[in-house]
Structure formats: structure tokens, C-alpha cells
Amino acid sequence: MKKNILLLILSLLTVGIISVRGQKPKPFVIPEIKEWCGALGDFTITDNTRIIDASEGAWVQAKALQEDWQELLGQKLTRAQGKPQAGDIVLKIVPKKKANPESYTISIGDKVELTAPTATGLYWATRTLLQMAERPNGQCSMVNGQRSTVSLPKGIINDYPDFEVRGFMIDCGRKYIPISYLQELVKIMAYYKMNTLQVHLNDNGFCKYYDNDWQKTYAAFRLECETYPGLTARDGYYTKQEFRRLQQQGLSCGVEIIPEIDAPAHSLAFTHYRPELGSKRFGVDHLDITNPQTIPFLDSLWREYLVDEGEGLVFIGPRVHIGTDEYNNSDPAVVEQFRLLADHLIKFVESYGKQACLWGSLTHAQGTTPVKSDNVIMSLWYNGYAKPDSMLNLGYKGISIPDGLTYIVPNAGYYFDYLNIRHLYNHWTPNQVGNHGPTFPYDDHRIMGGMFAVWNDICGNGISVKDIHHRVYPALQTLSAKFWTGRDVSVPFNEFDSLRLTLSEAPGVNELGKLPDTPITVATVQPNQELFCKDKDFDIVEAGYNYSVSFHLKAVKESKGTILFSSPNATFYLADPVTGRLGYERDGYLYSFDFAPYPGEEVDITIEGDNRETRLYVNGNLAERKNGRTYWTDGKKRVTTVETLVFPLQSTGNFRSTITQLVVRKL
């Protein structure tokens, strides 16, 4: 490959297209481009630039590029077919034997040519082009707040991933994660060429937080279930159609959704529904795998999602995850039953055409009962549960997801609240499984790639989806680089950490609630209006951390439940539904400030929020900070609640007070 690039450079030098002196440096994108040959000059994209799908099958990627370009950059480019001309952006799929299916080439000269052997590779090429067009890479001119031209550096890109699996696992069992967020997450992952999203669909809390009473302990199964009516969680679940559409969305942009149903541990949702299946020896979060009813129960559950019942499969992708982690191993006879169950589930899902994935646990559950390993993928998370070298020698393919490096457990006091992205960027690649190894050869294809995870262990502690995203996003950007470019990242971490903040989450996505640099002001806020505050190319639906929202309030008596501001994710009350005081609600949690204005009183109110607390100021004085109450304590360890707020600004409620001088600013 490098020989081909060298010959290409020599050829271009000969005809004078590039010169070593004055060639453009490698553009900053995430993940980092593997091979870049810079040239002289820039290619300018104007409203007259056409997007040409020059081969059969490229129209989907051309359409996606057109829509995302307009969403991200404000330019509406024409999509067409026909013979490419100078000034066009040309997309084509050119199949090549033995080519990496996710590889692509971008040539920027008198036209921009995106070429790949597959549709997925071509889609990744469009993501690179979009990131290059964002500042600080693409130089833009503006007319009336909109980009009129975008200039890209001329040169040639040859790019491909080092690892096949580049993923993230999200625990939706212990905390309901709305399908709307998962849809946004897929877009973000695709923008950074992360290609695998594992959705952990069932789990439960720890009984010690519930007076050591399993009946009180939180548990949930998040899928619509007709085989076992009443199993589905009442506080949030995905319909079959919603989950199909999520997987279809992922397939359209290179992201595979791997659904996980975890058993026989982490199974309290099942034993709440069928108490007779709970283990009396190990705790009822364990299925009793000696009970002859257990395997038929699991078979029937899985069958509902693996069989087409006329509306299409529910699990439509090629792989599913069968769980099988952390079952008690104190009884050797039960260990053999556990291994038998794992082997059964692998073969059961394979009988429906799926490749099985499972958590590594077979060192912990060491025994003589064989468990199928051929064409089976193991999540290597803790070496004490599954020795990576032993597992790979047995024939398993491995995904590196070491708990001591890549586990986020929000506000729990163990593992990571935020991943140590500096260490991961500078020192880790997926071939190192665990904090202290073992480290396999970098090109050992038994290690398919890597993932990181969010485990929402502390059920009911107030963590919001926004808080989860605030932890996920920097990790996702960083590990995107390490899963694609791996050991060859060349941008120093401090520079990477600064430049990553200049990129969007994805076209049309602003889950972080990023604010413009200039404060947004509204002279008078009217009741029952759509705010949609605009500043240049920002549509502000909510203010993300770190923010200040201030306004002048001339109060009248308001009914309990009077809303001042709302968005799909949160509500800010002038009079909350319980106390009638200022307050806010998100993710099913209601927080009240100890302040209510008197009727006729005029006050200046300021709310400030970051990822740790929410603060109320009255007439410039700090009145209260919401930064956590004790959720649980054993006298030694204390777990606190989370009382953060990403401030809602999409619309106003039906209030009677007078609200003026609204100012929204970044802190």
C-alpha cells in the first residue's frame, strides 16, 4: 500500500500537481486519516457544485451527503447523474477483491472523487469529507450568516480501519434510554465511523440499595413482549417496530445494532415475572438453571424476536448477544449446568441464522462441559472471568472491552465516572486486553476490535440521559481514533483534545446543547410560544453544560404545575406540581428550589448549570445549589443523587407572570 502511495506521489510531483514545499498538511478529522498526500491549492465548493453518483448503488450515499451537507453547512448542493465535470463531487463504488470493505479513497483536485469497494466504505468517505468541511479544516465564506463557499485542501486520502469492530455498549436495562436518544446516538457513532452499538436490554439494581429486598429491587426488560405479557417494563420500553427501525437506521449508515438479552444472571426482571425460576441458593437475580422450566422459558423469549411472525424479524442484524456473565460458580455441579446453558443458547440462536456473542466467563465457570467456540464472539471484559489467551486458543473471536479501562458507571464511586481519555489515547489499543495485559500482536485477527460501555448500576440515582451522553461523547471521539487508526495516531493528545471540540456531534445533532459564543437575548418572553432561539447557524432547543439562563420576573400567583420553559427532555417550572415553587423536571425526577416569588414581586432570576450541579441565584445572590442528596449509605460509603439540568428552551408554557430580559450564555 505504501509503495503505491509513493509511486502516486512521484507521479504527481512529475506533472506538477503537488510539491513537497507548500503542500497542505493532513486535515484534522476523527478518526485520523491513515494516509494523506497533500497538494497545492484548494477546491472550492459553491451552491453550484453537483454531487454525482457515478456508479450503481452510490445514490444512497450521495443522498446522505447532500442532506447532511445542507444540515451541517447550510449549502444546498444539487444531486445528479451523468458524466462528472470539473467542480463536481463524485461518488462511486468500485468493488476490489481482497480490499478492506471499509476502506475508501478521496481525491481532491479539479473535482472531488470519493471511491470505495463497498457502500459502507463510501459512506465513511462522506463522513470524512463532512468533517473536513467543518472548521477548522474547511475555510468558509459567509453570506447572511450562511456559508456561501467551502474550500477544501487539495490532496489524496487513502483510509481504512485497523480493527473490524469499533463499538459501544449501553445499559438500557437499569435505566430507560429513550429510542429517540438511541437514534441520535447511531448518527453520532456513524459520524465517527464507530460501527457497533450493543443494546443491553435487561438488568436489575443491587438489592443492598433496596433494604436487601429482592422484591423491592429495580429490574426491567425493555422490549415489547407478547409471549410473556407483563414482562415488558412499564416505565419505558421499545416497541418491536421501534427497535426494527433503529436497526434499519443503523444498517443504512454502517452501524450494526447488537441486541443483548442477559441471562442467567442479571435476570431479576424474569424472576419478578416468573418467581419460580429464581435461584434460592444464589439470589433471585439468578435464574435457577437446574429448574427444567428455565431453558424453555429463555427459548420462547428468544424465539419471539428471531422468528418472522408476518411483520418482519425483530432482531434483523447478523449477530445477537446472549449475555452469560457473572453467574455464581461456588458449586461445580451448577457450573456444569451453566456451561450447558451457554452452549445451548449459542446453538439456539445459530439455528435461526444468527452469530452468537457472549460475555467472557468460562475461566470463572471452568468445567468439562463443552461450550461451542467456533464462529462465536466473546466480550473480553475481565481476565479473572475469562483469560483472553485461553479463550482465543479455544477458538473464540474476542472483542476487547476491559472493565478497568473502558467501563463508565455514572456517579457510582467505582470504575470510571468519565473515562481517562488521555491514557486511552496515548497508551491503549484493543490488542491489550485489561489494565496489565495480556497484549497480543497488533495484527492478531482473533481480536476483532474494541468497545467501551456505560453501566447504569445505581438505579434511581437521578442520572439523566444528558448526563450519560456528557460522559459518552468524549470517550466515543477518543476511542474512534484508537479503534480506527490505533497505534498510529500522530496528533498529540492536547491538540486532539482541543480540536475534537471544534467538530459537531453529527449533522443536525446537538445532544450536548452546545451554545454559541455570543449570548442569546429575548426582550420579552411570551406564554405559549415556540422559542427556537437562533444565532447564526444555531437552533437552540436547550442549553447544555456550562450555561447561565437569566431573566427578570414580575410575578403573579401561578397554579401548581405552571411551566415556564420546556423541551422534549426537560421542564422548568414557575410553580412546580408538588410545592408550587421554582423547580425543574427531567427523566422522571422532580427537583424543587426553596424559593417561590410573592405575587407582585419583581426579581432577577439566574439558573446556572454544569455536569455536577444546578444553582439558583435571586437578585444576584446564590440562593441554593442542587448538588446531590444521600441516596444510600452503609455508614462508610455514601451514594448521592444527581440533580443536574440541561436547561429547556424549546417552548414556553401557559404562565401569567411577566418575563423579560431573558439572556442565555455560555459560562
Question: What would you note in describing this structure?
Answer:
There is one protein chain. Helix 2 (59-73) packs parallel to helix 3 (119-133), helix 4 packs parallel to helix 5 and helix 7 (294-306) runs parallel beside helix 8. This protein has 3 domains: 2-159, Chitobiase/beta-hexosaminidase domain 2-like (Chitobiase, domain 2, 2-Layer Sandwich); 165-502, Alpha-Beta Barrel (TIM Barrel), CATH 3.20.20.80; 520-666, Jelly Rolls. With 667 residues, the chain is α/β, with parallel strands linked by helices. The strands form 9 sheets. Strands 1, 2, 3, 4, 5, 6, 7 and 8 form an 8-stranded mixed β-sheet that branches. Strands 9-10-13-16-17-18-19-21 form an 8-stranded parallel β-barrel, surrounded by 4 helices.
- What proportion of the residues is helical, as a percent range? 10-25%
Number of domains: 3
Question: For the terminal residues, how far apart are their CA atoms?
Answer: 48 Å
> What would you say the CATH architecture of the largest domain is?
Alpha-Beta Barrel
Number of strands: 38
CATH topology of the largest domain: TIM Barrel
**Average residue-wise pLDDT:** 93
- The CATH fourth-level homologous superfamily of the largest domain: Glycosidases
Overall form: globular
Tally of alpha and pi helices? 13
Structural class: alpha/beta
**Low-pLDDT residue intervals, each spanning 5 or more residues:** 1-20, 140-145
The CATH class of the largest domain is identified as Alpha Beta
